[in-house]
Amino acid sequence: PQYPLYSATISLCGGSLVPYFLEETANWGLDINNIRQSVAQARSRGITVRAMVIINPGNPTGQCLGEASLKELLHFCFQENLALLADEVYQQNVYQDERPFISARKILMDMGPPISKEVQLVSYHTVSKGYWGECGQRGGYFEMTNIPPQTVDEIYKVASISLSPNVHGQIFLGLMVNPPQPGDISYQK
């Protein structure tokens, strides 16, 4: 399962999608050997694999990747020199305490050098999913970890040519990253 906008964007940019499959019998978890095989097959066809996308928590499966899986995945990205794109937009939509959401960035930082200093990670979040469940509300962000400054500059240029985000999305995003605190006028008692 994947977000169709990813495959469409890859196609639009002239790239090649290298799919990997989740293991249904393991609560829709990742099998690093399956991923390793997908990357090796792509490279044998002359495809330069540059990045990997994970959707955690998964949609529509609802799986949350555990600490061991995330460590294994980050180690794989380190070994293979792959950037990791962590779509974590459903992190507030977890309803099973026994399988909590764990961010890829937290695990990356916990792993320490050299992995924590070298794996390139982009983490995504949005107001459109968990907090209000309002898919029509648009506002989001991504955090870049270990991304080269010249790449950040190019991303900033691309983002700067877009029209301004909608007002509601800006308000919701502000509330998401800086929620009302006790004593604030907007704080519910």
UniProtKB/TrEMBL annotation:
Domain Aminotransferase class I/classII large: 1-177
Cofactor(s) this protein cannot do without: pyridoxal 5'-phosphate
Signal peptide: none
InterPro entries tied to this protein: ALAT1/2-like, Aminotransferase_I/II_large, PyrdxlP-dep_Trfase, PyrdxlP-dep_Trfase_major
Pathway in which this enzyme or protein is active: Photosynthesis; C4 acid pathway
Superkingdom of origin: Eukaryota
Biological processes, Gene Ontology terms: L-alanine catabolic process; photorespiration
Molecular functions (GO terms): alanine-glyoxylate transaminase activity; glycine:2-oxoglutarate aminotransferase activity; L-alanine:2-oxoglutarate aminotransferase activity; pyridoxal phosphate binding
Keyword flag NAD: no
Keyword list, A-Z: Aminotransferase, Pyridoxal phosphate, Transferase
Assembly description: Homodimer.
Family of the protein in this entry: Belongs to the class-I pyridoxal-phosphate-dependent aminotransferase family. Alanine aminotransferase subfamily.
Record's protein name: Alanine aminotransferase
Species assigned in the record: Platanus acerifolia
